[in-house]
Amino acid sequence: GENVEQHPSTLSVQEGDSAVIKCTYSDSASNYFPWYKQELGKRPQLIIDIRSNVGEKKDQRIAVTLNKTAKHFSLHITETQPEDSAVYFCAASIEREKVTFGTGTKLQVIP
Amino acid sequence: DTGVSQDPRHKITKRGQNVTFRCDPISEHNRLYWYRQTLGQGPEFLTYFQNEAQLEKSRLLSDRFSAERPKGSFSTLEIQRTEQGDSAMYLCASSPGTADEQFFGPGTRLTVL
Questions:
Q1: B16 backbone φψ class: left, alpha, beta (φ>0; ψ -120 to 50)
Q2: How far is A79 from chain B (nearest CA, A)?
Q3: Residues 6+ apart with CB under 8 A from B79
Q4: Residues of chain B neighbouring A86 (CB-CB closer than 8 A)
Q5: Which of B32, B111, B110, B104 lies closest to B68 in space, CA to CA?
Q6: Cys staple from B105: which of A75, A82, A92, B4, with CB 3.0 to 4.6 Å?
Q7: Residues with Cβ within 8 Å of residue A97, at least 6 apart in sequence
Q8: Mean pLDDT computed over every residue of chain B
């Protein structure tokens, strides 16, 4: 089955700096890669996603890149703000089937 | 609120008791998923339905666990003879048949004493 690894497990940045979270996946059949943000005690919420036919996608301060050959994908958050502090999960999926999540990155943005 | 809802939000039970959770998906979403999340970990897939058909079950879903979606709308997840290791957040998600995005509910936090 699919295995998703995520690094780092914790990340502290100064407000205004950029944050990068990296993930790898194992199943070359995976074709959908969502990123979820989860605040303490709340549900995971989708912040951005990318499909395997696209190499990069951007939405305001958030961007995701995908390297299918290397089976790597990354989340980039620019101009970080304190409200970006949360746990971020990368994930991989095949055609609306089950989603396999990474182990999470706890992001702390220091004001 | 038109999002995914789950009931109850919290459940405390004693070891050996049976518990049942309910998930109401977003209206007209034909896919429904159950995940389990323990502290400090990402959600782990348990099972999913397309309409009333259960399409896949994880190896995590032992014979003490059963899920149903009898009319293709709401779903229930039952855990029989609960164990302390079952303590976790149980998350439900739904998605339309035409898109990949899964929308999560608030979860049911189970504590087994």
A1: left
A2: 26
A3: B18, B19, B20, B64, B65, B86, B110
A4: none
A5: B32
A6: B4
A7: B48, B55, B56
A8: 94
Strands B88-95 and B75-79: unpaired
When pLDDT is cut at 50, 70 and 90, the band that residue A105 belongs to is very high
For residue B41, what are the contacts with CB-CB under 8 A and spacing of at least 6? A103, A104
Amino acid at the residue A87: V
Give yes or no for A27 touching B (CB within 8 A). no
Long-range contacts, stretch A78-84, CB < 8 angstroms, 24+ apart: A78/A18, A79/A16, A79/A18, A80/A13, A80/A14, A80/A15, A80/A16, A80/A17, A80/A18, A80/A19, A80/A107, A80/A109, A81/A15, A81/A109, A82/A15, A82/A109, A82/A111, A83/A109, A84/A19, A84/A109
User: What's the confidence (pLDDT) of residue A54?
Assistant: 85
More confident site: B98 or A13: A13
> Rounded CA gap, B59 and A65, in Å?
31
- What count of CB pairs under 8 Å joins A to B? 55
Beta strand B10-13 pairing with B108-112: parallel
Alpha carbon of residue B13 to chain centroid? 17
For chain A, first and last CA: distance in Å? 41
